[in-house]
Amino acid sequence: MSRLALTAAALFFLASFSGRAGAQDVIEIDAPLLAASATPIADAITAEGAILAADPQDARPVAITYTEAHDTRARIHKYSSWATLPLMATEFALGESLYNDPSALTGAQKGIHGAVGAGLIAFFGVQSVTGVWNLLDSKNAPGHTKRLVHGLLMLAAEGGFVAAALAAPSDRSAPPAYDANKATHRDIAIVSMGVGTTGYLLMLFTGGGK
What we know:
The chain has 7 helices and no strands. The chain is mostly helical. It has a domain at 77-204. The longest helix has 30 residues, at 108-137.
């Protein structure tokens, strides 16, 4: 009877141990399962397109088409601009000679100085028309700010040349007034030439209209 009781107790112990072991082998997974996409390539292309649309740096620049008249004005402005520095240098040399040698005021040199000055004003007028016209015509093109600064400098120089011509001394002026007008004329002209040279070099050393 004791053996039967021991056997029953052993069987009960083994049954309980195996039940616990089976329970410990069960692993619970709480994380949700992700279903695989049926169109993975299409989904990848759509996601890449969304990224590109969100990044404005990847946007391609818009092409700008100019008219033939615009190109003609640009050529006139560009090739005639090579005369800017020679004209200003010639006018400066003539003006300095007249300023330092009063006896030359009655000679032909004064007439040449006046003619070159008039030509300089006319030249800047042509450059202003072609430059401002094309500046307005290409306001959406790259480099607009640089061209705008260049244009403002050249217009200021042109206005200075006109002011210098109006301030030129008259032969009928008395010596004190004549000397004062002569100095004012020279100062305005030199400042205008400096402004014009700055505007010219800005475009020369920064790649023109780019």
